Known about the structure:
The chain is α+β, with helices and mostly antiparallel strands.
Amino acid sequence: MGQKAACCASKDSEQLIPAAEALSAEEQKGTEEEKKANPLKIGATMPDFQLNTTKGDFSMHSFLTSDPEKPWTVFFSHPNDFTPVCTTELGECHLLTPKFARQGCKLIGLSCNDTESHAAWSKDVLARHASCAGQDTLAFPIIADKDREIVTALGMLDPEEKTAAGIPLPARALVILLGTTVKLTILYPATTGRNFDEVLRVLISMQLTANNGLATPVDWKYNERVIVGPAVKTEDAQSKFEDFKLEELPSGKPYLRSVKCPATGCSPGSEKSMIMSVPPDAPPSAPDDQDLPSGMAVQSSSCKCTC
Length: 307
């Protein structure tokens, strides 16, 4: 990491953040009301909309929980069909679907038009990619929201970008869910395309750090060192993880601790992470069969829903 590091820290000097006190009944009620008011808030439960999609009709919750080996979902919205930025995004999502599947994640899109329009648009999307020759359907469903009921209910409108008739365009919302629970929300303006390689990076970070006291630092990439969270005792980090280091800082506070990136992947059907078997001489890898960090690939099976 380039900074001077120490192998251990004095217990007397170690400062830990105390566990949060239990919320009172009134505070819990307020938190639940806030989640209902903001359905895309982290920790909120996604509303169970009835969906009409290019892969059939089903409820949102049935899709989100349809495949135990793909408990994670990336849900993303589009303002309309046959729009240029959206066309480039859908093509990228189609190409990246196998990478997300190997991380136990499925995709579902939404656009403010009907399924007949979605099907025709899909042909344009796929025609731009030589590797998709002969294909005419996308690898994931697209929800029809012609009346904008879903995007309105989820607060996905961009008040600054409007149609010729003065109607606000839906923003480019992107939500990562585990089961029916919102884990991440990114809201892009209608004029800005998304970076789905970054979405994959964030997904892997969340899976790698789930329930083990780790966090990923700024600009973290696959297989780079990870941060030890404040609630983890130094002696526990030293015994549980490899190559523990503590940065010496001017404040003298022993809070910036790091360890070697663990060979950890998402356990299918579980929020918890699990240690996977990795050859000790396995080279660092980048997305796509070079694509995922060594040992993080999740074996996928055919989807058990209509997609």
